Structure to design on (328 residues):
């Protein structure tokens, strides 16, 4: 009998991946609520194909005692309790390398839109309210040559650094572990600690995962350490920023603008941010291109199928304990 995989949303994937998935597993669509409402544990379920919109909890896993693999469609896994999955013998996988370019592209888009007031400008044109070119109308700030500070120089951050080079931007970064001098040279980036980076950057872009340590990393205190007139960009996770503090800094003009693709209480936006002219917002679309989402689908399925077979998935984020006692 084929193992049952619960899928939580429709996703893009190639026909090949689709074929492999359906020949190896019986895929059923499910929701967290349905699983939790089940009076009995779902003993035949061995795999979960889910994403950031479906948080995994201990209670959910209690209903799924034979799950071997949670294949996450996306790179961030702050919605999955990794230590618990590890303890319960469950592989957790993500989609590294699939969305770096798409997210970096959007980051540059937000940098330009926030610096050059593109949304305000669009709104004037959409309302047919443009009264004609004047020398002082809708002045923004130049992007070229500005110092960009990258928080978290992983693969997405590196793609942002490469794009920033095309805008002649000096790039600073802070990381738990600095890169080797050779790699710094190759990417044209310089290490700074967090405080130094905030003090020196004209634009700060966040590319670090959400963890208990990074939650609320940008708050009233740290935002105050940013340069007056700086711009804050976030395409990582909303809860890295305390939005009330950000809105306050934007209103007071301490920050010139912000570009946000992710939100603290997603999908809700903090009421103080709504309507601010100097915030540019997108609806968590960093990886939302056909090409990237299809590549993410293939990667997720490949990881899922490896986990179901009892093989180590290529993008495993943990080494589950007690795998040997689980039936293959
Ligand atoms: C991720 O991969 O974590 C993004 O936020 C969604 O693509």
């Amino acid at each position: 009998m084929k193992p049952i995989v619960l899928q939580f949303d429709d996703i893009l994937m190639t026909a090949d991946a689709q074929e492999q998935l359906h020949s190896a597993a019986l895929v059923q669509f499910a929701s967290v609520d349905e699983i939790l409402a089940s009076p009995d544990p779902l003993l035949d379920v061995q795999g979960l194909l889910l994403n950031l919109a479906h948080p995994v909890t201990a209670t959910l896993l209690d209903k799924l005692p034979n799950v071997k693999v949670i294949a996450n469609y996306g790179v961030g896994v702050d919605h999955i309790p990794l230590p618990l999955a590890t303890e319960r013998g469950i592989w957790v996988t993500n989609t590294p390398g699939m969305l770096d370019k798409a997210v970096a592209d959007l980051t540059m888009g937000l940098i330009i839109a926030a610096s050059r007031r593109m949304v305000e400008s669009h709104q004037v044109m959409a309302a047919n309210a443009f009264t004609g070119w004047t020398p002082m109308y809708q002045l923004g700030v130049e992007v070229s040559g500005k110092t960009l500070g990258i928080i978290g120089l992983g693969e997405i951050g590196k793609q942002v650094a490469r794009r920033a080079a095309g805008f002649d931007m000096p790039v600073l970064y802070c990381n738990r572990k600095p890169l080797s001098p050779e790699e710094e040279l190759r990417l044209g980036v310089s290490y700074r600690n967090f405080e130094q980076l905030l003090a020196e950057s004209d634009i700060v872009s966040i590319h670090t995962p959400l963890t208990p340590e990074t939650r609320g990393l940008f708050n009233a205190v740290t935002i105050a350490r940013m340069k007056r007139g700086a711009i804050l960009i976030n395409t990582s996770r909303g809860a890295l920023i305390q939005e009330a503090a950000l809105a306050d800094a934007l209103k007071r003009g301490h920050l010139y603008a912000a570009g946000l693709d992710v939100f603290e209480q997603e999908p809700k936006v903090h009421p103080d941010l709504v309507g601010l002219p100097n915030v540019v917002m997108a609806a968590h679309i960093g990886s939302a291109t056909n090409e990237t989402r299809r590549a993410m689908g293939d990667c997720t399925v490949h990881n899922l199928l490896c986990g179901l077979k009892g093989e180590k998935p290529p993008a495993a984020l943990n080494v589950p304990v007690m795998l040997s006692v689980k039936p293959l």
Q: What stands out?
A: The chain has a mean pLDDT of 97. The longest helix spans residues 290-308.
